[in-house]
Amino acid sequence: MKIIMNEWISSIMNSDERLSMPIMTYPGLKLAGKSIMDVITDGENQFSCIYELAKKYPSSAAMTIMDLSVEAEAFGSQIRYSAGEVPSVVGSIVYDEDSARNLKIPQIGSGRTGAYLKAAELGARNIADRPTFGGQIGPFSLACRLYDMTEIMVALFDDPETVHAVLEKATSFLVSYARAYKDAGANGIIMAEPAAGLLSPDQCTEFSSVYVKKIVDAVQNDNFIVILHNCGNTLKLVSSMLSTGAVGFHFGNAVNMEDILPQIPSDRLAFGNIDPARLFKNGTSEQVRQKTKELLEATSHYRNFVISSGCDIPPGTPIENIEAFFETVASFNKAKRNC
């Protein structure tokens, strides 16, 4: 059964219950009997985690891993792999105007992009009761990984033309990657743009939102949506984020959702923001329950809000904490029904 995303959005906003959609794939490792290396290199293995999580938990959507190294690796960046850690980018491949000009836009399917597309394809084909989202990095965050975070922050002032040159190439690739997710049958993408949280509002618009909008304009329609994720301090960046035209916005635990939600129009979705590391991974089940309940109560009058983690829930997170989150949401909804 094909999922119409406009109808999915309406079902959330018209629901009398609070829905949930934590950003998680790694918690499925134990359920599927897989390792980190298994799922970041093989689409079928990654899908097995997605599928096991979808069978076990009533999340509003399934999703591929939020891996911020995949696209940089396709461009040629060196990646550090570890059995117990998520992959990360090592060094930079852009450092001046010449290296930016010589940067080659990779083909879709290069590196590990094919594995992630396969995971999304299998998810969309086999999980019929909810949307499947592909995970994709945002243009400024990709540029930061190609350029080096410290160097690019200096270049924003000293050499903005070179930064824009990198962003144009990054965006061209990301448009093609988003279209590939769409062609694979995914219902949308969750675009991770955390580095934009370091920017001023004007910089966020110039170096991030303008480019995100190009991706949104290229792929978003009734059947495929973009959810823009930024886990930085986005309190003053919401207006810039809204200018991208994305229909959903996912916030990290660096902000208070009570400060964010009044800025989100009622026809856009907002997601957030239980701390994935301090609470989900390293907290107790009781702490997860308490914080989840507090956030549900504080945001109860926002019908466009979906409770979530503040970012990707990391490997090694106790299943008991995941279950505490979903049980608290269920208990909250039951209490509302009985009022």
Describe the fold and architecture.
With 339 residues, the chain is of the alpha/beta class. It is built from 16 helices and nine strands. The strands form two sheets. It has a seven-stranded parallel beta sheet with strand order 1-4-5-6-7-8-9. Strands 2-3 form a two-stranded antiparallel ribbon. α8 crosses α9, α8 crosses α10 and α15 runs parallel beside α16. The protein is globular, with a radius of gyration of 19 Å.
- Strand proportion, as a percent range, falls in 5-15%
Whole-angstrom Rg:
19 Å
Q: How far apart are the termini? A: 35 Å
Average pLDDT value?
96
Structural class: alpha/beta
**Number of helical stretches of at least 4 residues:** 16
N-to-C SSE string, H for helix and E for strand: HHHHEHEEHHEHHHEHEHEHEHHEH
Cα shape: globular
Low-confidence stretches: none
Features:
339 residues, alpha/beta, 7-stranded parallel sheet, two-stranded antiparallel sheet, globular
Describe this structure in a few short sentences.
The chain has 339 residues and is α/β, with parallel strands linked by helices. 50% of the residues lie in helices and 13% in strands.
Topology:
Blueprint (H helix, E strand, L loop, with lengths): L4 H9 L14 H5 L3 H6 L1 H14 L5 E2 L6 H6 L2 E5 L2 E6 L6 H5 L11 H14 L5 E6 L1 H9 L1 H10 L1 H24 L4 E5 L8 H19 L5 E6 L7 H5 L5 E4 L5 H4 L8 E6 L1 H6 L3 H14 L6 E5 L9 H19 L2
Parallel strand pairs: 1-4, 4-5, 5-6, 6-7, 7-8, 8-9
Antiparallel strand pairs: 2-3
Helix pairs in contact: 4-7, 8-9, 8-10, 9-10, 10-11, 15-16
